[in-house]
Design brief:
about 25% strand, alpha+beta, elongated, six-stranded antiparallel β-barrel, four-stranded antiparallel beta sheet
Length: about 350
């Protein structure tokens, strides 16, 4: 037997002797055996959790938002660093837009050419209208002379009729050219607007307020479409994910009160509420240390902190901090005194105290 296993056996024996001795002392002293779990919790330094509550361990997390490029290009500027606070709509990076600017000038030139072609087509329409009027008058005159028994050959009338029809066709062709010119102008305008959108998209803005978690690219790098530049933490959506066994998860209602205790500051109790309960069970992750719990299926539960409370302590909000979350699964059961909300009183000071 290894020395480590030997020490574990010795520790288990000593703990068992301590439990038996304490229980015997309670019975000999005439104490209430029902109070024994509370006494044992006091000895172990952990208050008992009454019925009607469930607990699970986890880490503080926040919604992560990636700021990425829509178009490929060279990164010209990154205006924030890791840890900086950004507001929604703030410009955080800029891509090089020289190529887009050249395309924009070309599209504007094509629009001017299409506009000139339209002016020419309108002039041609006026010309065809005049030719059609002249051809119709000539046809009408020859037809009138033919009915008055004056010498007008049938060939002259047919030729005049053909000229009128030719003028009508030429007018329709000129009108089609005007329509084509209008379409060319519209297409050029659409190209200009698309390029303007691409230029605007080349200026990367924060989709929401938060803190810069990662700076993933530097000026001068060439990024493809969808290339990530920054990762932001939305500090208005901070939560802890825990796993509860099926009996407890079945009673955990959305909006149920919860409490979060962080390992870094166990003297504070942070109020929260249940914002999500997974619709399907899954295996409990390895970080749940109790073997009996790991052997069963559990439900993922998200415990979310109030955004208004987060706004007060935003400078001290950090993700990744481990802790424990307690969920009230039976509303009629009052919260124990040691889980009453306790928050620090230093939100306006430059640095939080190390202890109470």
């Amino acid at each position: 037997m290894s020395s480590r296993r030997r020490w574990l056996v010795v520790a288990a024996i000593l703990l068992s002797l301590l439990v038996v001795a304490t229980a015997g002392w309670v019975l000999v002293a005439g104490g209430d055996l029902k109070a024994f779990p509370d006494m044992l919790d006091d000895l172990l330094g952990e208050p008992a959790l009454p019925d009607g509550f469930a607990m699970g361990n986890g880490r503080l997390e926040a919604t992560e938002v990636d700021v990425a490029t829509k178009l490929p290009g060279r990164l010209a500027e990154v205006r924030v660093r890791e840890g900086d606070r950004v507001e929604a709509g703030q410009v955080v990076a800029v891509l090089d837009t020289d190529a887009l600017a050249a395309q924009q000038r070309q599209a504007r030139a094509e629009r001017r050419r299409a506009q000139q072609e339209r002016e020419y087509a309108l002039a041609v329409v006026e010309q065809r209208v005049s030719e059609l009027e002249l051809a119709r008058r000539e046809l009408a005159r020859l037809q009138r002379l033919s009915r008055s028994d004056q010498f007008v050959s049938e060939e002259q009338v047919d030729r005049a009729r053909t000229d009128a029809r030719t003028a009508e066709a030429a007018l329709r062709a000129a009108q089609v050219q005007v329509t084509a010119s209008d379409a060319a102008i519209e297409a050029a305008q659409a190209s200009i607007e698309r390029i303007e959108v691409d230029i605007a998209d080349s200026t990367l803005k924060a989709p929401r307020g938060g803190r810069v978690l990662y700076r993933l690219a530097e000026p001068g790098e060439v990024l493809g479409a969808g290339g990530k530049v920054l990762t932001l933490l939305d500090l208005t959506d901070v939560y802890m994910v825990i796993f509860l066994p099926a009996p407890a998860a079945g009673w955990a209602a959305l909006g149920a009160p919860a409490r979060i205790l962080l390992d870094a500051a166990p003297q504070y109790v942070i109020p929260a509420e249940v914002s999500f309960v997974a619709p399907r069970a899954q295996f409990t992750p390895k970080q749940v240390e109790t073997q009996s719990v790991r052997e069963n299926l559990a439900f993922r539960v998200k415990v979310r902190i109030d955004p208004e409370l987060l706004a007060r302590y935003e400078a001290w909000v950090k993700t990744g901090v481990p802790g424990v979350a307690y969920v009230q699964i039976r509303p009629e059961t009052p919260w124990p005194e040691h889980l009453a909300p306790r928050l620090p009183t230093w939100p306006s000071t430059p640095r939080p105290p190390l202890s109470d």
